[in-house]
Write a structure and sequence with these properties.
The chain is an alpha+beta fold. About 25% of the residues lie in helices and about 35% in strands. The strands form two sheets. The chain has a five-stranded antiparallel sheet, with helices on one face. The chain has a three-stranded antiparallel sheet with strand order 2-7-8. The model has no long low-confidence stretch (mean pLDDT about 95).
Length: about 140
């Protein structure tokens, strides 16, 4: 299991539009599954994309690492476990994407997002104080 300051789990069913002709999830859709998990985690912290924008920040993804271990298929239940592993200089989130019925680990991944001040377009190398405070209040 991942070492994370805060975690959140998201469960959903693989839709038909997520799969290829063999009914296996297309590899690019795992990035969408990570986004579902990331949104749930950031909302739990109280600093989702709406709050980021109202505070004057965007957090573009600057790095993604994905390791595919086992395929998911149409109709299977998916459990995405998202864990905040870094939050002071950037937002780094680790993901475990599992088959919910079997618990089998299907994909391991990590994303990194950097703070950008919307008004100036300037990259910040420290996360906004409000985000850090919300993380530390919840952790």
């Amino acid at each position: 299991m991942m070492k994370a300051k805060i975690t959140e789990e998201t469960v959903f069913t693989v839709d038909f539009f997520d799969v290829d002709s063999m009914r296996v999830v297309y590899h690019g859709n795992y990035i969408n599954y990570m986004e579902r998990g990331r949104c749930a985690l950031l909302n739990k912290i109280g600093f989702g994309y709406t709050e980021m924008e109202s505070e004057g920040y965007a957090f573009p993804v600057v790095d993604i690492k994905v390791k595919y271990l086992h395929p998911l298929r149409f109709g299977e239940r998916v459990r995405v476990i998202s864990g905040l592993t870094e939050y002071e200089n950037c937002i780094k989130i680790a993901y475990e994407i599992r088959n919910d019925a079997t618990g089998e680990l299907c994909t391991k991944a990590e994303s990194t997002q950097m703070a950008v001040e919307i008004a100036s377009g300037e990259t910040k190398f420290v996360c906004p104080r409000i985000f850090i405070e919300r993380v530390e209040a919840l952790a």
